[in-house]
Design brief:
31% of the residues lie in helices and 12% in strands. By secondary structure, it is α+β, with helices and mostly antiparallel strands. The protein has one domain. Strands 1-3-2 form a 3-stranded antiparallel sheet.
């Protein structure tokens, strides 16, 4: 059920963003928030400041904690062509540098 909600949430919109290192920013806009999450902190205020939907929060938590699962799930909403996404992970996590994950807003659907 969690994985199903992640797939639906991540693919709900084809006009958003995400990827790992080397991500194209062609879909970014100046009004788009910068979502950062310190790995292991359990401080999801960057997500909860934009939505109080528990399913969206759960999807981001799963994506950050289990990229090895989502890396094998392709996203079918066209984000590969627009944003270079190679898996469903890219719809939630843009990049990870050190212990900070830059989150993508595509997971908000």
């Amino acid at each position: 059920m969690i994985i199903g909600s992640i797939i639906v949430s991540g693919c709900a919109s084809s006009n958003n963003e995400q990827s790992n290192e080397g991500h194209s920013d062609s879909h970014s806009s100046p009004t788009q928030p910068s979502l950062k999450y310190e790995l292991g902190s359990n401080n999801w205020s960057s997500v909860t400041s934009l939505t109080n939907d528990p399913n969206i929060l759960e999807a981001y938590q799963f994506a950050v904690e289990h990229p090895e699962v989502l890396n094998y799930m392709p996203c079918y909403c066209g984000c590969y062509e627009e944003d270079g996404h190679t898996s469903n992970t890219n719809c939630f996590v843009d990049s990870v540098k050190g212990d900070v994950a830059n989150l993508d807003t595509m997971g908000f659907g």
